[in-house]
Amino acid sequence: MKKFVFIFALVISASLNANYIDDLLVRADNLRSSHPETFQTILSELEQAQLSQQQQGHYHYLLAYQKSFEGDFKGAIGLYTDIVDNDQTSTSIRFRANMSLVNIYAISKDWNQGLKHLLISQSLLPDIVDSESKQHGLIVNAIFYNQIGQYELGEEYASKLTKDVTKGRNHCMAAQLSLEAKSKLNLLDYDSPLFNDAIQSCEQAQEPVVLSGIYTSKASLLIKTNLHQQALALLLQHQSMIEQTQYTPILSYFYGFLAQAYFGLGENQQAKEMALKTLAYTETLGSSEPEVIANKILYSLAEQANNPIEALKYYQQFAEADKAYLNDIKAKHLAYQLAKHRAAEQQNNIEFLRQQNNVLLLKQKIDIVESENNRLFIALLILCVTVLLGMIFRTKSTQKKLRHLAQNDGLTGLFNRRYFTQSATIAIAKCNNLKQVGSCILFDLDKFKNINDSYGHKTGDWVLKRVALECKKIVRNKDIFARIGGEEFCLFLPNCSISDALVIAETYRAKLNAIITTETGFDFAISGSFGVSDFSTSGTSLDKLIADADHAMYQAKKSGRNKVCASTETYAD
After folding, report:
1. For 161-279, where are the E strands, in sequence order?
2. Cα dihedral sign for 241, 247, 250, 253?
């Protein structure tokens, strides 16, 4: 009797212990991003516990999450891969581990592997019963597609989740991902009520990491619209919370945007400190946008301080970082296109095998003649489809080329005068509807005829293309930049006052002066005369804006060239 009681007690004790460990695992899972310190404490306790096979799978999943959060992507990938390959682990945890691999491959920029696991997870998603796992799958899809630059798809998956879940951690993350996608698609303004809704949701869910992403996204939009003071105030207000996350990707953007805000306000020392801090955080991230931002600011500061050695150093770093970042974007696009191609190819193979199987079944019911006729029919059908697809592809390609020729200047690749007039007219109407300001910058290359006459038209063409290339690097997202004449260029700047436009024009002027012409075989200077007009002096007629800017440009040439003049200045007849 005593032995039976002892065994019964052991069974009850083991059951209670298993329930306690399950509760710890669930609690750690729920707190992993909102309370990192508590999450670490629970993991330390679980490390000493006796775990079942199922519990070990869950525990290793949490360990992998911790490693990825700390930036140890290699270690995290090893743990996640072991979980996916272990048949003893629950289907739900294996699914989540696979989705985590998608996320971590996105962060480590292995887009091909990420897309591979993403497609596997998408095929498994309909069979997942657990609603939390389904929601997690939608979140990771949205994260990955945002990471790879497919923001329409990222917004699609995030919106699916926000419709099904109205509160909690998953709603918070979906709201942030939706904001990120809309921001990149230029479908969001900094004062959108969607920001307040997302912030409220994430505050209720106690998700500081996701909140940090929302605030940095809003700061980015403020900086893009030259509202540097508001961006600075927003970032400083939430600095303590953002720094406490210790999440390197968020912190690199945070300090990069702080540097931009300080630089925009002319607070150069603070801008330099924040830019250097940004570079310290980007060392482990590879090519990244914050690295480009920081080096560009440091280069500009060194140039302003008349420190050519430091300016050259940071300009080289900026050029390398910018090239690497653009190459990364191209790699994402290529990986996505290859994945689509592989998926289509796989689907075609499946369809082909299905058709082949149908043919084999028909062979059992029909004679040799009918079977041969069927094969000929299938071959003819495939040929027709192939020809049709080829015609469609060539038609779309031709349309795209014709559209480009109609809109762009053949030499520089910039918009031509006709397309500039159409786009600027639409942009002016939008400014009127939103009651925003607008400005126009017109500039002409100084003594361009002398360059053609002295060094040849080939050199002149090189100058035009190089001017376009260098200027495009500093064109704002919403600005419209075009070549409207031989050596004449024009920009329309929505939501930009004349004071800001003058600063921007000075930037373009300095950019022209910085062009080195030695690769042409000749050494000569390039400069431009700039005229600036805006709604307050010229009204909202595009013709009047251009005419006043042209008048101002004429004054810049008349007063010595290589200058910026505003249409508000008084001119002598």
Report:
1. none
2. positive
In the prediction, which pLDDT does 573 show? 33
CB 321 within 8 A of CB 291: yes
The tokens for 48 are: 């000493």
Contact 492, 476 (CB under 8 A): no
Q: Which amino acid is it at 462? A: W
3-class DSSP string for 233-249: HHHHHCHHHHHHHCCHH
Residue 227 and residue 213: Cα distance in Å, rounded? Answer: 19
Residue 490: enclosing H or E segment and its boundaries? strand 488-494
Name the percent of the chain in helix, strand, coil, to the closest 5: 75, 5, 20
Predicted confidence (pLDDT) at residue 179 exceeds the cutoff of 70: yes
Cα 255 → chain centroid: 17
Range scoring the smallest mean pLDDT among 151-160, 246-255, 333-342: 333-342
pLDDT value at 125 more than 80:
no
Q: What is the pLDDT of residue 10?
A: 46
> Rounded to 10 degrees, what is the CA torsion of 180, 184, 188, 193?
10
Q: pLDDT for 469-518, tens place per residue? A: 999 999 999 999 999 999 999 999 999 999 999 999 999 999 999 999 99
Type of residue at 208? P
Give every CB contact of residue 91 below 8 A, 6+ residues apart in sequence: 128
Q: How far apart are CA 459 and CA 276, in angstroms?
A: 39
Residue 561, exposed/middle/buried by CB under 10 A (0-12, 13-18, 19+)?
middle
